[in-house]
Amino acid sequence: MESLDDIIEDANKNIKKFLKIVPGGGRKPVYSSKLTHLKISHYYPLSNKKIKGIVHTFPNIIHLDLEGSTEDRIGKTLKLIAKSYPNLEYLNISALHGFKSESDIGLSAIANSCHKLEYLNISGHTGFSEIIICNVICYCQRLQQLNLSYCEITDITIEEIARSCPNLKYLNLRGCYKISKGAVNKLNPNIHIENFEETLSPPDLIEAVRNYLVQNNVFSRQILAQGLQRLLDLSMRDNLQ
Fold first, then answer.
1. Tens of pLDDT along 120-144?
2. In the chain, where do the E strands start and end?
3. DSSP reduced 3-state for 77
4. In the prediction, which pLDDT does 10 show?
């Protein structure tokens, strides 16, 4: 039986073989115009040069999954994707990192061009400013699934979702601790909201620890565990910056 490391190694080899057929120009594979779904995940770094080759070779992509695969200059990558794939319906760029100003420029290009997006995952992106995230939400009103885990957002983003996303069915808010329950309650009740938890203030956390030490029952343990998980999530988000 293959180990997980062997499976990952085989997957990376297959991706490398695939990328070797992606030219910077010239003759395209016969199937290139028919390819609409492309997933290249956890292949770091997927250089901007390779991205140029991909958009040249496969002009009709509507489903693009680049989770954990692009280099730091993500702004240029997103601008190229926005220019090349205006009909994009699915975009996953989660767990990527980039410079704040350049990231904003790239995501702004997505907002201005890719109005058919139905799925967007930008989790782990502390580099995107809230105003640019709101622009994407405002202009991409076909969104049905949105993952904003660990993004630097507040109630402002939630209010924009309530105004601009009539078709939204799924929203992931893991690690988004600047959002109030009141704002979330204003969202369409048909939206499945995942991983939203109100932040425990320091006094609340101290009280949870005290209750655990005094009462030591199931409920007190659950409250304490939730508080510690939030602290861990905040630490993870800080490490992404």
1. 999 988 888 999 999 999 999 999 9
2. 37-39, 63-65, 90-92, 119-121, 145-147, 170-172, 192-194
3. helix
4. 53
